[in-house]
Design a protein that fits this description.
It is built from six helices and no strands. The protein is mainly alpha-helical and 138 residues long. The termini are far apart.
């Protein structure tokens, strides 16, 4: 049993003082992750925390509800795609509908996929010249 003093500062703060996207204290994470029936709810919680962080931890309860709903729809779409690949005779329309609903929910939230910026021409040339100087270039 760990003492309260050994916990991270974020875990010691009252839940109302922590941002909604904050990581769970280790004791709560373990209890959640060891339950085999909690796979989908755990994924929903992870997605909701990620969306809350991406949107700047909104305080509006309506916005938070939209975020949780979007996380639930994304998790259900992931599960439907998994079942479509593993269950013989699975109706693909269900997977398509679930994915479309999840996509619409994410669009409403304004969550965009983070795309890596390609290197500039100057960075590309510098990388190529370093590689050729080291003898790695073709």
């Amino acid at each position: 049993m760990t003492s309260i003093a050994a916990r991270p500062d974020r875990a010691q703060a009252a839940s109302s003082d922590r941002p909604l996207s904050a990581q769970l204290p280790p004791t709560q994470r373990a209890r959640r992750s060891n339950d085999p029936l909690a796979k989908l709810p755990r994924r929903v919680a992870d997605l909701a925390r990620a969306y809350l962080a991406a949107l700047g931890d909104p305080e509006d309860i309506g916005r938070q509800a939209e975020i949780v709903a979007a996380a639930e729809l994304v998790a259900l779409a992931e599960k439907a795609r998994s079942e479509a690949l593993t269950v013989p005779g699975y109706d693909l329309n269900n997977a398509i509908r679930a994915q479309n609903a999840a996509d619409r929910a994410l669009r409403r939230l304004g969550v965009k996929a983070v795309q890596a910026k390609p290197p500039t021409l100057r960075e590309y040339i510098a990388t190529r010249s370093r590689a050729s100087a080291a003898g790695d270039a073709p």
